[in-house]
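Dear colleagues,

For the upcoming journal club I promised to circulate an example of a predicted protein-ligand complex. I picked one with zinc ion because it came up in last month's discussion. The inputs are reproduced below in full, followed by the predicted structure.
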Amino acid sequence: MLGSLARWLRILGYDTAYDNRIEDDEIIERCRREGRIALTRDRRLTQRSRLRGCLLIEHEELFEQIREVLKAIDHEISPNRLLSRCLECNSLLESVDKEAIRLQVPAYVFKTHSHFKRCPGCQRIYWGGTHRRNIYQRLKTRL
Ligand SMILES: [Zn+2]
């Protein structure tokens, strides 16, 4: 149910695990093992006391949800953290030498960008520093 929120938390650079088929007991176990805060819309889950950190997401609207999370962890969005993680697998992206990825991106992208990052998890290539600043400005006005 919180798939969009999870994706946006990754865009914002937060270490975000997401699995919509996971059972409550597994959520609790994984949060304990990995030191995570569970985000849920399920009030029953937040009432189970063994969980160290569990945040009930009250709002339906995405940006309200993001605001709830940022408030709970007492963070503001940071331009440096933005787009620092792979949106698919959550790994921290690494800067990569432009020549090394020449054949892995479309020719026009290679020509028009100078900075690239690679996901060490799934090998996806990311680019677009200007894009990042635009997203940051847009988010700043909404959050
Ligand atoms: Zn990845």
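Two points we might discuss: Residues 94-142 form one domain. Residues 86, 88-89, 91, 119, 121-122, 124 surround zinc ion (CB under 6 Å).

See you all on Thursday,
B. R.
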